[in-house]
Amino acid sequence: MPRLLIVHHTPSPYTQAMFEAVLAGATDPEIEGVEVVRRPALKVAPSDMLEADGYLLGSPANLGYISGALKHAFDVCYYPCLDTTRGRPYGLYLHGNEGTEGAERAVDTITTGLGWAKVAEYVVVSGKPGKSELQACWELGATVAAQLMN
């Protein structure tokens, strides 16, 4: 069964709400045959990344960059995943109160190096996520999970 790994850092109520919406989309009953695994970014091991067939990444944008937790996940997993995870689909959601461009650029750079395939537009939210932003998170989760359906 294909596995979708959600790597997240959810230190605030806003990032938690976004995570829950992404998870709800990824686990929608219409998406069949996909196992969804959740890991806090600080607890991700290379084996988690290697065993996954696709990825959803979630982070606050701290000072214009991805969280240290998500950066840590990439740091410990980058080289073990470098040649074996190419072509795998991924999506990203970010929450930031100020500029998120640096965080988006960081994920673009890292995932390009890994050879991952961006399969949905990033969901970027500033301030409190409203109904439309949470719907976009749900759609992100469902879109990436659907990429893994047989």
From TrEMBL:
<dbReference type="InterPro" id="IPR029039">
    <property type="entry name" value="Flavoprotein-like_sf"/>
</dbReference>
<dbReference type="Pfam" id="PF03358">
    <property type="entry name" value="FMN_red"/>
</dbReference>
<dbReference type="InterPro" id="IPR005025">
    <property type="entry name" value="FMN_Rdtase-like_dom"/>
</dbReference>
<protein>
    <submittedName>
        <fullName>Flavodoxin</fullName>
    </submittedName>
</protein>
<feature type="domain" description="NADPH-dependent FMN reductase-like">
    <location>
        <begin position="47"/>
        <end position="126"/>
    </location>
</feature>
